[in-house]
Design goal:
By secondary structure, the protein is α/β, with parallel strands linked by helices. It contains eleven helices and nine strands. It has a nine-stranded mixed β-sheet, with helices on both faces. The longest helix is centred in the middle third of the chain and has 20 residues. It is globular, with a radius of gyration of 18 Å. It starts with a strand and ends with a helix.
């Protein structure tokens, strides 16, 4: 399904226009220096994105573990579906706070709970450290779901960009353990894929090719980028058939657009239930970075409907 409306393009263009021209190159340089052992600039980037927004009315947050934040609706009378959410940021920055606005907005719709995860970041902690933390968080959620008022049979995993990659990889590590995946412009190939979208949107659309290449390099230190738990699009078909139903929402003007489209088509050809929605005109980052409110709002509504239908 394609969502097409001029508002997506207008908001994305304004968002891009307000981005500092040197932001992407500065972030790429910060990641590159951290790979070489100097994390000073990268830690500054991390700090700048680590502001906790105010929770909306009707949502409360708690910390069931030091690296976890549980968002729950104030009023609930039954067990609710639970989404375990992994933030984006190229595996190298982002935090439990950077995805807080999305998590809280989803819970504010009612009848859904979200568990956000702070996983270890590369390059200090490359693959598989972050993935191990995500798998541990899912297993923790399965163990404590009843204590929180969540349904242990309706636990989904999700994430944006690299967080979406971690959600897919976690499901591959835990076959048949999740009720669904909720993915926003996920990384499915942790390498330069040379696709039409990679070439068309590799500079000036919210995620530049050079920055993505540094993300990939940081995450795959001492690892093969083609490993199926790093690049799920390279996973054996037999493993992919065990994935749960997948909701995949992409941005039409995004370097990762073709990766998402191809992955959704592959899963569909293998018999996996997939709902693939492309927001035409949108660019990367609309879930966690303010500036494309219509794309975010519609994505929250779609994700809420998807999770609620599992009841």
């Amino acid at each position: 399904m394609i969502l097409s409306d001029d508002i997506f393009t207008h908001e994305a263009d304004a968002f891009i226009g307000h981005m500092p021209p040197s932001l992407q190159s500065h972030q790429a340089e910060a990641v590159a220096r951290a790979i070489d052992g100097d994390s000073y600039l990268l830690n500054m980037v991390r700090s700048s994105r680590n502001t906790q927004p105010q929770l909306p009315d009707g949502v409360v947050a708690s910390s069931p573990a030091p690296n976890l934040r549980l968002y729950t609706p104030v009023s609930r009378s039954r067990q609710l579906p639970l989404l375990v959410y992994f933030h984006g940021g190229g595996w190298t920055f982002g935090s439990i706070n950077s995805c807080s606005a999305f998590c809280a907005a989803l819970v504010a719709r009612g009848d859904v709970m979200v568990l956000a995860v702070d996983y270890r970041l590369a390059p200090e902690n490359p693959y598989p450290a972050g993935l191990d933390d995500c798998v541990d968080a899912i297993e923790f959620a399965r163990k404590h779901a009843l204590d929180w008022g969540a349904d242990p049979l309706r636990i989904s995993a999700g994430g944006d960009s690299s967080g979406g990659n971690l959600a897919i990889a976690s499901s591959l590590r835990l076959p048949d353990a999740l009720s669904s995946l909720v993915l926003f412009y996920p990384v499915t190939k942790a390498f330069a894929d040379g696709s039409q979208s990679w070439n068309a949107y590799g500079k000036g659309y919210g995620l530049d090719a050079r920055l993505m290449e540094e993300f990939n390099r940081a995450y795959t230190i001492d690892a093969n980028a083609l490993h199926p738990l790093i690049s799920p699009a390279c996973a054996p078909f037999a493993a992919l058939t065990h994935l749960p139903p997948v909701l995949l929402i992409g941005a039409g003007r995004d370097i990762l657009c073709q990766q998402g489209t191809d992955f959704a088509a592959l899963l569909g050809s293998l018999g996996v239930e997939v709902e693939h929605i492309m927001i035409q005109g949108a660019v990367h980052l609309f879930i966690t970075v303010d500036g494309q409110p219509t794309a975010r709002r519609q994505s929250v509504d779609i994700a809420h409907r998807w999770l609620s239908r599992k009841q």
